[in-house]
Protein: Uracil phosphoribosyltransferase
Organism: Streptomyces wadayamensis
Amino acid sequence: MLLLPQTNQLRALHTVIRDRSASGRDFEVYSRRIIRLLLEAGLDLLPFGKRDVTTPVGETYHGLEFTPRVCGVSVVRAGESMEAELRDMIPGIPIGKVLIQRDKRTKQPELFYKHLPGDIGSGHVLLLEPMLATGGSALAALDVLRDAGVPEENVVLVNFLASPTGLERVSLAAPDMKIVTSSVEDGMNEHAFMVPGIGDFGDRFFGTVPTAAS
């Protein structure tokens, strides 16, 4: 698991979005700044190939090139918050969708929908899942990718907040999947929400619930 460096800037960004009185616009803008950091870190975990180029002064630069086959898969709906940043960074990148919802009574994940790139099994995948509480949704999404032929070691889980319980569960069930997150929380409350937490990420990002500021 890769935890983003806990810099003063990152803590300041988290302070804005964790504030219950933050406006919807502030939540979106500052979340997207963290999302960009997460995606950059996630891409750095993918394999690179060697590539030489000639510089404007006629010299050779011995560099690297990105893996040619990579796609994103977002866990609907919160994961869709990461899509725009990813497409800005890699124009034209294919993005699949997986809809998994947690049963409010049993707290268990249920798969309702999936649509993946046809050649997904031959490349690497950035699995976009901002909230890792119990770990159930992430593992259910990983099962979808495995069934599509994606090796576990070819998956990078790009995560916003994680609980210790979720991290332990995912690490035990999928030891070869890489994880990048911006924060490991203290734990979960009786409603399986992480604490200190951020609330419902999808609702706050897409503005589907009233905020205290409104």
The radius of gyration is 18 Å. The first strand starts at residue 2 and ends at 3. Residues 56 and 170 are 47 Å apart (CA to CA). The chain is about 30% helix and 30% strand.
